[in-house]
């Protein structure tokens, strides 16, 4: 961990100003909230920022109902509080379930909504400063492609990067069509969740479409995604306290024996939380049968490019999707 | 076996057995589930581990590690590190004074504890990816770590053997493995196997593992002048550490004091000398300040070796009755180019089964990586995985119950050495375990049990571990106030040393436990062996027993000089320790308390020290502990996730000295076995020889949610040839576990997985 | 930290200025052990003792969370916390590693204290 300057901001605009004032082209200051990812990266020498702006005292910790339905979650709401909040448990249980499957209780007590969205990949070569990593150092190469890539991406990859986004919460937010509100030097703007995280393409050094100096202030959960029957299933190498190999967030509405609405997102398979739009399209309007689930899952995973270490992922993803959709259908059928 | 070994074995056979210890039957304290005496210290955070001693003027050291696995350092750029605020010194091979390479680890003679022949920081040669290339000393640990990260090397990299698989074709015969022949055979097992009607032939692979004790390796070095040193360390072998450090720095052994009363988990990873403490001492010498060096978790992976990978073939032929007509167990493990440790995976079948013909052999290869070392049940843990999985497969082939197949091959004497077993009740352990587990309710057919989306299966496997005893010295002092002090340099790393040794000493001397103080963890105390091989408890018990006998004899002779003593004329065999003193066996009211004897003699204390003899009994008898491991697993039908749902461990490990701590030890071994079977693997990148998961985030040790309820039962049958009839129990728990799980997975799914860890991708 | 369990290794001290921090040393009051500390000794919830301060502090936080109705990954939708089952203890304590494998003793200690809290005085 290198020497750094510690600054504090008690409101959003001074936080944004402090970051701008302490950043240059080559050296960015960073927002510090829970620190569960940033402090770790600094201790590992992966993140080398010279200045931290602690925003934990800014008033961004509310969970409130929005006038036209929906819920606004402050960026500093901690993961455990969000998962346990009555509004969230009642209307967006998928989000609650996803959060609770992530990390550990201690980490969930520290981590914030904004920080969870901004967390970086767990790729072994990203973490190892002696390895070649295009994300850590643009253009240096990617040692994961021919190396250990069990936890790496199979969808949306590029020849430059096969890293995955490790969050569980984000998979649910992708499925729920959340909106992310940010404040930056140029003012406020909002991004649909699907546009927050990027695919690696030729610039894997960029994780998100946030501009330098922009701060997430809140996340809106739309009314249209409320109270859906949903399941979050996480498949991992041990029973708890591990990142997903593959995870599935699914919500479904069945009426007259036909799928009226379906939301499907995958974790552990791509550089961003993966909204399974191909599968959704095939599932809307058809009967919730095993056969249709298998077909939809196969179509979604057809473009997958597996590597030596994660060759099992396409099959695992397909099976987990099918299994989750079957479970949801049974749940809906039983009127739960 | 060597000539010396053969001579020793002959002597052992003609020497009479030790007298049976009458304490074996006593149970005032021994055999009681007494709470740990160090419990309060541990639950309040008062127990100090090596990095936690407050020392005035302490500064901190950090290590920079090589990033190639073989070659030479061409340049090493240290100016950025030197200029970092707070940095006091940067030491590299260019300016480090010459240190002697500590003698390799050994338990006999002069205790060596070196783990590698690499001249740490005294060479430009790189022998493994992770080898220390510099030590930085600074005012704070953060400054030291940061400065170390600024050190840049250029290397001349050479072609290295970075992959175990790649090295296998170059395997060689190590001739000897842990004092036994690398190869043993009888008859022509291969020919018998070729012609057998019922047989199995399977190849197994196990990956590299790391101990990952929660406490990071750390040391604090405090010099006193130029030639005296105090080292706070986390060591399973304080005397070995002291000896190795003294050797490295040309000091007199008696001038090096290593203090290590509490070790935060060892599992074999803290028994040898790893570079961190040597570099800590070096840093303290160069800066003239007391230095603390705590490895990061990454550092532990880089410079502390773990378990070797293995590839093993087990081929067994049997008659229709199930009797083994041919047993072949062969394979390869790896060592580094600079150490010699072929892990003894081929030991289990040498002592477990009656075999008409057999060929049991192991080879070893050299790989360019950090030196491998012992890790909980070295040999037996990975060897039982292969052997016990193969036997399970054979049971299906024969249509026999897996326990029945094993029982039909129970030997009456050691199958290879033909020695008598000192104590073997595996049959009883299986009976107890099967009963507790409900083995008879197990469905006979494979893949037939389900619960929703989960397949359910049950598996069983034998575990075994040898009985070792190390030469150990102890001092016993009885004070005029009637209290006793027992001292030896041994360790506490979770086995409950202070508790069980106090139980023993109190029982031996007939004192209440509160009047016995047990001092340990200090290399200047009488020398104990390494806390390894599950040997410490019985090794110390024997030393204390014999030292206590000496003190009693001295007290008796003091009493003889007192004409009014009720012990006048009594000989050692006429008296016994009871009621805090010595009393006649024939007239139990006649005698004196220790306090009375000493006070009347005008002495403050009586004391004796004793060093035990070599463990010749191990050469005379075949001495082992046994386990019958029963488990149930659930395998998800779609995702292949494997979860262990319940466990029964049945143990035959001599007399249990403290049921509370023993059950915890057994369980602890089983938990580590679950990790070995299902979740753990150290990932060496074969292009660079670099470990790519040097953290607890990506090296998955079992968590709470992975561990089901574990029931433990044991025979508690005393071994007539061991101190107190007890055996060590630290490692038996992990043996047989991986096979039990693999066998349960087979029973659940019909898939036999022969490579560890059994991850879901292998079951999709 | 203000009654909630966190990981100190990721907590920059300066961030927590003015907050209430409770460590293992603070659990013993006037020389009297906290019930969890006693239970860990009685149920043998440790071996080497290195993870023990963390386990106990985490358990204190966990029991408080459970009492306040905080859900875990095992909690069913919309259902309030019922009994603290073994499965719940396992999931909720999975953030504390123990390499000595004292997990069974740890959860027996926790459940022992939990039952005494709920049923009062009835040690099982």
Record the SSE blueprint:
The complex is a heterotrimer of chains A (336), B (764) and C (124).
Chain A (H helix, E strand, L loop, with lengths): L4 E4 L3 H10 L8 E3 L5 H6 L7 E4 L8 E3 L5 E4 L4 H6 L1 H6 L1 H8 L4 H6 L2 H6 L5 H4 L41 H7 L3 E6 L2 E6 L22 E7 L7 E7 L10 E10 L2 E10 L6 E2 L1 H7 L6 H12 L11 H21 L3
Helix pairs in contact in A: 5-9, 10-11, 11-12
Chain B lengths: L2 H12 L24 H5 L15 E7 L5 E7 L1 H4 L4 E6 L32 E2 L5 E7 L2 H9 L2 E6 L6 H4 L8 E2 L2 E2 L1 E4 L2 H6 L3 E9 L11 E7 L3 E6 L4 H12 L6 E4 L15 H13 L3 E4 L2 H7 L6 E9 L5 E13 L10 H6 L4 E11 L12 H19 L3 H6 L12 E2 L4 H12 L11 E3 L2 E13 L6 E7 L4 E4 L9 H13 L6 E4 L16 H25 L14 E4 L2 E4 L6 E3 H8 L3 E7 L5 H4 E2 L1 E13 L5 E11 L6 H21 L30 E5 L22 H13 L15
Parallel strand pairs in B: 1-14, 12-13, 16-17, 18-28, 22-23, 30-31
Antiparallel strand pairs in B: 1-5, 2-4, 2-6, 3-5, 7-8, 9-17, 10-15, 11-12, 11-14, 15-16, 19-20, 20-29, 21-22, 21-27, 24-25, 25-26, 29-30
Chain C lengths: L34 H8 L9 H16 L18 H7 L10 H17 L5
Helix pairs in contact in C: 1-4
Describe the structure.
- The complex is a heterotrimer of chains A (336), B (764) and C (124).
- Helix content of chain A is 29%, strand content 20%.
- Chain A is of the alpha+beta class and 336 residues long.
- In chain A, the strands form three sheets. In chain A, strands 4-5-8-6-7 form a five-stranded antiparallel β-sheet, with helices on one face. In chain A, strands 9-10-11-12 form a four-stranded antiparallel β-sheet, sandwiched between helices.
- In chain A, a hairpin with a 6-residue loop joins strand 11 (258-267) and strand 12.
- The radius of gyration of chain A is 20 Å and the shape is globular.
- The mean pLDDT of chain A is 97.
- With 764 residues, chain B is α+β, with helices and mostly antiparallel strands.
- Helices cover 26% and strands 25% of the residues of chain B.
- In chain B, strands 3-5-1-14-11-12-13 form a seven-stranded mixed β-sheet, with helices on both faces. In chain B, strands 9-17-16-15-10 form a five-stranded mixed β-sheet. Chain B has a five-stranded mixed β-sheet with strand order 19-20-29-30-31, sandwiched between helices.
- In chain B, helix 14 runs parallel beside helix 15 (536-560), helix 15 (536-560) crosses helix 16 (594-601) and helix 18 crosses helix 19.
- Chain B is globular.
- Chain C has a single domain (8-119), classed as DNA polymerase, domain 1, CATH 1.10.150.
- Chain C has helices spanning 35-42, 52-67, 86-92, 103-119.
- The longest helix of chain C has 17 residues, at 103-119.
- Classes of the chains: A alpha+beta (336), B alpha+beta (764), C mainly alpha (124).
- Chains in contact: A-B, A-C, B-C.
- The B-C interface holds B 35-36, 38-45, 47, 49, 211-215, 262-267, 492-496, 660-661, 663-665, 667-672, 696, 701-705, 707, 709-710 and C 23-25, 27-28, 33, 37, 40-42, 44, 46-53, 56, 86, 89-91, 93-94, 96-107.
